Structures are given as structure tokens and as C-alpha cells.
Amino acid sequence: xxxxxxxxxxxxxxxxGAGSNMAALIDAGKxxxxxYEVVLVLSNDPEAGGLAIARAKGxxxxxxxxxxxxxxxxxxxxxxxxxxxxxxxxxxxxAGYMRLLTPFLVNRWEGRMLNIHPSLLPKYPGLDTHARAxxxxxxxxxxxxxxxxxxxxxxxxxxxxRVPVLSDDTPQxxxxxxxxxxxxxxxxxxxxxxxxxxxx
Length: 200
Ligand code: GRF
Description:
Elements: E1 9-15, H1 20-29, E2 36-43, H2 50-56, E3 60-63, H3 73-86, E4 91-94, H4 103-108, E5 113-117, H5 129-135, E6 140-147, E7 157-164, H6 171-198
Parallel strand pairs: 1-2, 1-4, 2-3, 4-5
Antiparallel strand pairs: 5-6, 6-7
């Protein structure tokens, strides 16, 4: 994907909820000279709060509800794929997207789909990461930006951020501290990845 024109890489952010990472990604992509621009926000949940935030920031935001598709994940993903293609998307950033993806989408976007996970991978893939870090007595926690592969939270790690775990932390207080650094880490990791892709 060589871009001799120097144009920004077209990014879609996929969400299911509040979209605080999505907002940080949109804002960073608007900065002068940013190597990417968020052109589309997609949610599998029509109620996701992030949809209105994206629209308020001038970004097209579309809900593709997974419920009518029942267990047919690939059929849902086929509609998602059509939206991505229609918007000329080149890179996907998952940001609190709570659906497991099938090989249908993962393989099409190999090397061009990123995720942020709230743990220091390979520790604590899956859910309840902060409670697990506290229960294990870890003195550090954090977040990881990684490429998405078929295994959940298993792809190559692109960047990590760390925070201390405090003696009086609850999963909620630790989640809040980690989320703050997610908002800094994810835009930087996405920008670095888009620069790499563009210069290939
Ligand atoms: C973040 O903690 C992210 O690491 C995880 O889901 C959460 C999404 O939060 N994958 P938000 O919707 O970006 O506020």
C-alpha cells in the first residue's frame, strides 16, 4: 500500500461501547501531519455511546446490529466488510469491540487490523484483566496494542504502556488508570503502524 501522495491512511474504528479510545484516535488523526485519518466508526451495538461522539466529531458512524444475524457471525461480518469497502478503509482499529471475529474478517485484514487490550499481554487475555492482575499480586498493570490474529488477544504486540498497581486499587480504579494511558498509547501505536504501512 505505497502512498506516494502522502495522503493519510483511511482508518475505521470498531466499537461496542463508550468509545473513549475511539475519541482519542479521532482527535489524534485530525492533527496536522497525522499519518492516518478516522473516516468511519462501526458499532455492533446501536446503543453504543461512542456513535454519537463520533458524529459530533464529524466522523461517519454506522451501527450494524449483530442480533438479527443470530449465530451467523460471518454473515454479520460480510455486512461489516461491505461498509469498510464502501468507505475505502485501509486499516481497522478495534477499540472496545466486544464481538469475537471469525477468520472471514481477520484473514482479510491481516497486518491491517489492530486492537487494544487492557493488560500487559501475554498476561491476561480475555476478560476481567484488572481483577486478575490485582488477584495475582502484580505490581504493574497496563495495556497492549497488538495486531489481530485468529487467536483472541494473541497477535504480535506493537506497543505497551505500564502503570503501577497500588495497594488499595480496585478493578475499577486500576481500569481508570490504565484507560488514561490507553488514550495516549493507542493513537501513537496506530500512527506508527500507518507510517510503516505507507512506506512499504
Ligand atoms: C478499553 O479498556 C480497551 O482496552 C478494551 O475495551 C475498553 C474500551 O473502552 N478493549 P472505550 O470504549 O474505549 O472507552
